[in-house]
Amino acid sequence: MSADPTPAPAPWRVLADALVARAATDTDRLAYDDGTERVTFGQLADRAAERARTLAGLGVTRGDRVALVLPAGVRFTEAFWALQLLGAAPCALNPAGGANAIARGVALVRPRLVIDERTSWDRPAGSPPVPVSAAQPDDLAFLQPTSGTSGSARAACVRQRNVLAFLRSTRDAGHFRDDDVIAAWVPPWHDFGLVRFVIGAVYFGLPCHIVQPAISTIPEWLRTISRVGGTVSGAPDFCYRLAARMVDPGSVDLRSLRNAGNGGEPPLRSTIEAFESRFSVPGVVLPGYGLAEAVLGVSAHVPGDALSVDRRGNVSCGAILPGLEVRAGQDVEEPAEILVRGASVFAGYLDAPADTAERVRDGWLHTGDSGYLDAEGRLFVLGRRRGMLKRAGVVVAPRELEEAAQRVAGVRVAAAVDVALGPPGQRGIAVVVEARVPDEEEARIAADVSREVVDRAGFAPDRVLVVAPHAVPRTENGKVRHEALRDELERTRGIAPG
Q1: Predicted model pTM
Q2: CB 3.0-4.6 Å disulfide test: which of 64, 135, 161, 372 passes with 112?
Q3: Mean pLDDT over each residue of the chain, to the nearest integer
């Protein structure tokens, strides 16, 4: 097979059209393999249709919301595509997130049905036939829970036409080739895993090898890339950082990789260089930027792009995807909120018109993130707008201090926040680092972190706190919740001078 970019598909109106087309043209080609079960595109379409008939017999119909609480794997994909055939809107929830988290997710979307591992797929008698491509372009394709790094949980409503617009833009940007092999570690209850891998495999007609997502399976993720000759993958920055620490480079061969997306949190130059150097894969980790409210991506590097780093050490998230308009600042010293306009911008939040109106104004999606566009049109994302730090009138991205702190031996995770320092009205910058060290080593770690920050940023943080592993609050997908950390420090007065 050639290495040309994937050809433009027929003018599909909804996602189900892609499944039907792949079943006809790529019947015997592998669609998904989760290590225990494999399914071709033809088998996937047949099984999805059978599942759809069962769901129709249970009363699920076009426009219904359905909670999908299944582990990553072939069974998940069959249920997802069954709902697409019915024109229903799945909302994927983490089955390992705990009963309370699942209950909150279900309460958020109020689904007609919850599909989990207890669901019986025995078709009720008299189940109606499933219409092909029951959905319409303005129907919902899926709902994405998005508590994000701050604020209350909401469900982003993503239309069929939004998803297809995004997929067309990645195709036009040259992100995929027709000989690509996907290795997926990011969970399908995250938009990165759902759109890029579960949906992308069918849209682009590519085999997708699924690894169960967990910190402990990071080595298996790299072994899978090595075993299947994976060319396309992706993960948040922290995953690459852990992989470079956890995996013996002699145990895997990653030279088949050409497009390893880095998204979900600000990319760190040190992470990218450590991963690429350790596994001898220069130029394969490609930073990008996106959010659920724009389906998935807003900007991204493509294979062959050189890593671009500004004078403050911020890594570019690449060029804006075709079909999108972006407004931002013009320089690292004068960033502005990133605004996005285009066909992939979401339909709004479920049952939250005020939140939707605040987020989308005059046709522009207000991302809440701060950044700028350089002269070449590359987007630099500094972090959450409300999380930006200030020192002597200069705006500093938390990532700049966090990357410096993570250079210290023993530091696992770092987070920089603006906090109250005790006396009324006094605020300063605190750097909190996770490290598994004896109590007597904490002072040394704190001093080393302070020196690294001085070397990088030219000033010392007002406080450095050393905490136990997993103490820094993070989202389900591993991103630091800076506002929650700041609130916790101020609530417990753990930041007050001793």
Answers
A1: 0.86
A2: 64
A3: 91
